[in-house]
């Protein structure tokens, strides 16, 4: 609540320097916040638009001491050839197998089971990543 004295002082001398500084800081903060959100959005859109091949490991089955069957779902543009790298890992965390699989079907979604041969018994399989053949 302001008193009559505060009102007279404000009429006579104008706003205080603190009030002006607060207003400037609020405006600068709002502008910087909007710029930051714009940059984050731009990076997100450019990342998603730039990804031409993506994959998801649906499940895996340790078929034997020397093989792991992996069910993959690949999403890509129909005219793009994709390569996905899989890794088979042993119980101690060491890699016992690694393989690249090429997907050149003219479809945008591919469900496929592939086999990774291993040097020892694997306990898990991992999708390392997928890329387009042209490198993008």
Give a written overview of the molecule:
This protein is an alpha+beta fold and 136 residues long. It has 2 helices and 6 strands, in the order ααββββββ. The protein starts with a helix and ends with a strand.
Which SSEs are present, and which pair or pack?
Elements lengths: L3 H10 L3 H34 L2 E12 L2 E10 L5 E8 L5 E9 L5 E9 L6 E9 L4
Task: Label this structure with key terms.
42% strand; alpha+beta; 3-stranded antiparallel sheet; 32% helix; 136 residues; elongated
Total number of helices: 2
Question: Helix-strand pattern, N to C?
Answer: HHEEEEEE
| DSSP strand content | 35-45%
Q: What is the gyration radius calculated from CA atoms?
A: 29 Å
Number of strands: 6
Shape: elongated
The strand line-up of the biggest sheet is 1-2-5
Largest sheet: 3 strands, antiparallel
Which regions contain 5 or more consecutive residues with pLDDT less than 50?
none
Mean pLDDT score: 86
Helix content: 25-40%
Q: Which secondary-structure class do the elements indicate?
A: alpha+beta
Terminal residue distance: 63 Å
In short:
The chain is α+β, with helices and mostly antiparallel strands. Helix content is 32%, strand content 42%.
């Amino acid at each position: 609540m302001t008193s009559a004295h505060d009102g007279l002082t404000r009429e006579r001398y104008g706003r205080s320097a603190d009030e002006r500084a607060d207003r400037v800081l609020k405006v600068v903060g709002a502008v910087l916040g909007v710029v930051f959100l714009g940059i984050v959005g731009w990076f997100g859109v450019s990342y998603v638009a730039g990804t031409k091949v993506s994959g998801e490991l649906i499940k895996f089955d340790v078929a034997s001491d020397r093989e792991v069957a992996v069910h993959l779902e690949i999403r890509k543009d129909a005219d793009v050839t994709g390569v996905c790298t899989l890794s088979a890992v042993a119980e101690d965390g060491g890699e016992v197998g690694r393989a690249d699989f090429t997907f050149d079907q003219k479809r945008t979604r591919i469900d496929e089971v592939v086999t990774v041969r291993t040097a020892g018994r694997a306990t898990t399989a991992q999708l390392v990543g997928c890329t387009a053949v042209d490198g993008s």
